[in-house]
Each structure stands twice: as structure tokens, then as C-alpha cells.
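Re: the pair you flagged

First of the two:
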Amino acid sequence: MDSSQLLIKRPHDAQTVTRLPHLSLLLAFKTVAEEGSFTRAADILHLSQSAVSQQVVRLEEALGVQLFIRSTRAVSLTSAGNELLNDIRGAFEQLVIAFDRCARKGESPTLHVEAEPVLSAFWLTPRLRQFTQRFPGLQIKLLLTTQRVEFPKEVELAVKWGDGHWPGFEAEFLMGLNYVPVCSPVLLRGNKALRKPSDLQHHLLLHDRSHDDWENWQKRYPDVPLSFERGHVVTDSNVLAQLAAQGHGVALCAVELIEQQLRRGELVTPFPEMTMPHWHAYHILTRRNQALSGVATQFIAWLKAEAKGCGESNARPD
């Protein structure tokens, strides 16, 4: 047998033997074909140009066909070479995936999740230990994005705020939110103390990105006089809650996301019964027709259980 070949017995026919070229020869061919140059292929493979050339010649001899048309300035594939390249590309990719999967078996599992910063800071992070305790050694990597979906290849799922429509993704409802006026306890005292809803007209309103939330809240409670012209507008819900806690005005915040601030007394709800279910909600996004890892599947089930525990907020928005 030629040293450039391996004998492979087929499992269903012990008398049939396939002569398979050594992978080093196929790799040399594939690299030259993709680079269009023996010199560049040699640099990539950390071999001399003559060694790469010899490997390609041995492969051509083993197959009995010419794979390249060589000239002094360029190298190009023959039709046989082009067919071979197309046939082996997928196999090499599968080998790389297999080796990578095997090499990672000894590593700690990692779950990549994309999420909104406000949800991560106020709702997910305080609960996360409950999940990680089930998986010793698990590493969770959070990609934080606002008003966009990046979804790089390592991310298996995302938790995003919106209307439930993201082209190219499967979106499953997770949790709705109930918005309510919140402020610093300081605003409950003094000459302009917030004692009844009409007192809101004497205070600045804090807005998340636009006046939309307060305008929709007033439609729900039309008897409350409000002034939308004054007040700060921010593009970060975390900053909005901080402004309210510092006494800069009254904000509309999701009661489900400010549990800790309410518990610590940093924020108060002067009119807790005057809530507004938001028309957007949090959804779990996954790629269509792509299987999830076991830990990702369990993470999604855990998210749903935690969201269900939030009570009314788990209802779909109208």
C-alpha cells in the first residue's frame, strides 16, 4: 500500500476496502485551492513550499487525476480539483466541529444570553443565583443590548422588550409589566407633597425616551392633570429610576423591576393602585430551526417559572 493512503474497511462488507488519502494531503490540497497559491498555503500550514507541492503531487498520484493547472504566476483548479474541493469542504468543517466539541467536554459549561440592561440589573441578576446553584461550574455570559438584537453566533437565546415581532426569530411571550408613578420619599413631604393624584401637576415628570408612557397613563386616568412639557427625558431606564430616587421628579416605572428600590425605601409609589399595563412585553427569542443546548432549555423553563411568580405581570398586554 502507498504510504500516502489509509485502508478503510466498510462495516457492512468486510471484503470491500477503500483507499483514503492521508488527511495531510487533503489538507494541503484544500489550503492551496482556497488560497490560490502554494506560497500562501505553505505559510498557513507552517511548511516549506516544496513540501506542500510534494503533498499535492502525492495526492494527484493517489487519485490518478490532475487537480491544479500550474503556471509561473498563478495556480488554478481543474474541473476534477474543483469537484474534490466542493466534496471535502463540508467534511472538514464537520471534523473541526467534532474536535471542538470533544475538546470542550472537559470545560465548564457556558451559557450565552442576550438581554436588556434594565431587566438584567433589576430582575434577572437578583434571581440568577437560584439557577446557577443547579449547575456547579456553569458560566453565564450576558450580552447587554437596548432597542436592538445583535444575537452573535454563540448566543442561544435573548430576552428582549418589544411587541413580539422580530423577523428571523422565534419569539415567545415571557412577561408583561405594570407601570406606576414612583418618586423619592422626599416628595411625599413639604408644601407640594404628593398626597392625591392631582398633586402630580406640581412636579416634574421624568420620561423614558419620550412622553409616550405618561401620555398613555393619562389616557387611562384622564381626570389627573399633567404637564408634559417640563421634565427630563433619558434613554436609559436605570438612569430614570435613579433620577426619581434622587428627587428630580416623578417617573413611570415597572413595579416588577424596582422591587429592591421599593423594599429599601429608595423609591415609593404614592398611588400604587394607578397602574398601567404596558403594551410591550418581554419575550424570549431563539433562532428558528436551531436546537438548544440542555442548559439553555432549562434556563428558559426557569425564566418562565420566575416570570409566572410575578403574578399579574405575567399576563399578555392588551
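Second of the two:
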Amino acid sequence: MGEFHQKPVTFVREVSINVMHLDNAIRFYQDIIGLQLLKKTDRKAVLTTDGKTPLLTLEQPADVIPKEGRTTGLYHFALLLPTRADLSIFLRHLLQTEYRFGASDHDVSEALYITDPDGNGIEVYWDRPSSDWKWSNGEVAMGTDPLDGNSLLAESDAEWNGLPAGTLMGHIHLHVADLRKTEEFYMLGLGFTIVNRFGGALFTSTGGYHHHIGLNTWNGVGAPAPKKNSVGLNWYSLVFADEEARNKVIEKLNKIGAEATKEDGFYVITDPSGNEIHLVI
């Protein structure tokens, strides 16, 4: 695993979200999801699975407000487990905690869906081998079928001990306001390729992955961006192979009228729907 989440592929590495109550959110992400606390301040916590790599940052703005409905922003972020056995162990853990979840077989993957106490969406999944994915005319076949839970549970009877160290941020799925502008930004600007379209959604990737970024208008065409202090997405990071690759993308973004701002060690860009992206190396 990992060929789609390393150089030279451009991929999602880290996600930052707002929560209502930091300590409650930390408890949920440790006890239910199985992340570990890497560092914490009064209003921010960084979570990891390997003890060193930030995967998820939780923030509690001073004037935080609950998640707003029918806006752009986070649909879900998706944690990719190394093996089917890992997902089996996680499924048994969810059943034992009795925390509500959904489940789907997407042909390319098997996935469990959870919503955190503040309404932030989470997917936990494993990928079937890429040699088993079915491609036709540049599009990958992805379905939404019922998950065979009994088969998944039979994969492992090992005890749950949190998420494995090899867990990655597999992809992110966002609500957007306008698919045409979104397509221009992510394809012509960021250099992603559309690998699947259906029902008001685009699935995009680099390097032949089934998707690094999903984009949909399911909250309504023209949906407004949420307020900065509301529960939901703060930003997510995209990792580029090197400085040259990132500079090429910044030039492409400039050509379509999107300007990246230089921060300390990375660049910040906002997509046409107000979703903030950190361009890192």
C-alpha cells in the first residue's frame, strides 16, 4: 500500500477541522476512531497514528458555532487502512462500542462511514488491489453496494488497539458550489484528472488512483461557504513531489486567476467554493 500516496503522485496528507468542544472531540477521535494525541494546546490538538506524522488537527475557535447546513466544505475525510484485516478489526470495534455507522462496497474499496459528535463526516476504508479495479475510457468503475459485513468480520479476530501506524489520509470529499468552476480549478489549476463522474459529483486523482479528491454539489448548486468559525473544514494539505512540481501548479493556478499566498514553508490557495488548501512538499 502507499503507491498512490507517495512521490511523484500529488495526494492529500493532512486535514484540519473545527469542533465545538476540543476535549470531547479528542476523546471521540481516540476512543472511537483510534487516533493518538501528538500535541495539544488550549484550542488545538494534533492527532496521529504513528506517533510522529500529523494526520488530523482539531481546532476549537474561541467563538465556534455549530456546523451550518447546506454549505460548501467537508463531506468527509477518509482514513485509509493498510489491510482488510485492519478494517475487520475496526468494524468489530464499532459494533462493540455501539457507535452508529454506515457501510458500503465501492468495488475499488470497502468503507465504513461515521459522523463525529459535531457532524464532521469520516470514512474509514481499505483499498482492494489496484490490479482488480476496472477501468474503461479513463474512468474507474465505482459502485455503492451493500458491504458484506460477515465476510469482513471473518477476515480477522485480532483485538482492536487503535488505528495501525500505516494509516494514511486516503482522500477527502468536499461539497462545492459549482462543478464547472470546480473542474477548471482542480483540473487546469491543480493538475488533477477526473476518473469518475456521476450524480453531481466528480472524482479526481493523480497517478491513476480511484480518487484523492471527491467534489459534489449535493448541498445545492450555489451553496454558500460556511463561516470561518463554524464546525467543519479549516483546510487540507496537498503534497507535491518537489518545489518544481509545486511551482508549475502555482503558475497554472495564476493562469486561471487563482492566486496562492506564501506562508511559512508552504502556499495557501482557496478553491472557488471557499475550501482552503495548503500546498506542501
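The longest helix spans residues 84-97.

-B.
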